[in-house]
Amino acid sequence: MNVQMVCLADQYISPVNAMFPGSVHDAYILRNSSIPYVMGQLQKHRVWLLGDSGYPNLPWLLTPVRNPRTRAEERYNEAHGRTRRVIECTFGLLKARFRCLHMTGGSLFYSPRKVCQIIIACSMLHNLALRRQVPFLQEDGPDDGVVAAVEPVDSDEEEAEEEDIDNRDSIIQQYFQ
Fold first, then answer.
1. Which of 54, 102, 106, 148 fits 91 for a cystine, CB–CB 3.0-4.6 Å?
2. How far apart are CA 174 and CA 177, in angstroms?
3. How many whole angstroms separate alpha carbon 98 and alpha carbon 151?
4. Closest Cα to residue 55, out of 170, 156, 158?
5. For residues 83 and 153, which has the higher predicted lDDT (pLDDT)?
6. Could you give the angle at the alpha carbon of 62 between the alpha carbons of 58 and 66, nearest 5°?
7. What's the CA gap between 5 and 117, in Å, rounded?
8. Nearest partner of 28 among 60, 4, 59, 8, judged by Cα
9. Where are the alpha helices (DSSP H) in 3-157?
10. Quick one: pLDDT band at residue 160, thresholds 50, 70, 90?
């Protein structure tokens, strides 16, 4: 399954999309989700999502600069990477808390629909555990090598609309000069 999650800075997961097979590109899942509509509405509040290089650069979705040419672009990429670690840690915590989601816990030998339901249920239980401040009781902690590695995928940045790149450039100029 190719699962797309959005998490907040405090590791709460919202929303989660687990209905596409692993062969589907991340950008396709994004285009076919409610996220573009919701983020379009939130854009007036200057709210952005951060995505890896597998996503296109959009006015509300900030991706790394592929080949940074200035120190400001390098600083932006560094800040982007540090901030994106939250989702990586969230994946690690989710997989450590619910071992069925991690490769070492086995495989989910169920129908794709059932696997999607399990992933969504685990995400909801994760949020509930955070809300109720349930301690994580694994001896080695959530970062015992469980963190999911996200492989960068060639993005369609070259095909992105000029205004989208201008949006990221204006953020770099405003905050990273």
1. 148
2. 7
3. 22
4. 156
5. 83
6. 100
7. 14
8. 4
9. 26-31, 35-42, 71-97, 112-131
10. very low
Structural contact between residues 122 and 98, judged by C-beta atoms closer than 8 angstroms: yes
Residue 60 — φ and ψ, nearest 5°? -110, 0
Please name the residues in contact with 128: beta carbons below 8 A apart, sequence gap of 6 or more: 134
Angle at 58 between CA 53 and CA 64, to 5 degrees: 30
Pairing of strands 61-62, 49-50: parallel
Q: Locate 166 and state its tokens.
A: 């201008």
- Give backbone dihedrals phi and psi of 135, rounded to 5 degrees, phi first: -70, 145
- Give the other-Cβ count within 10 Å of 6's Cβ: 19
80 Cβ contact partners less than 8 Å away, ≥ 6 residues apart = 50, 62, 63, 64
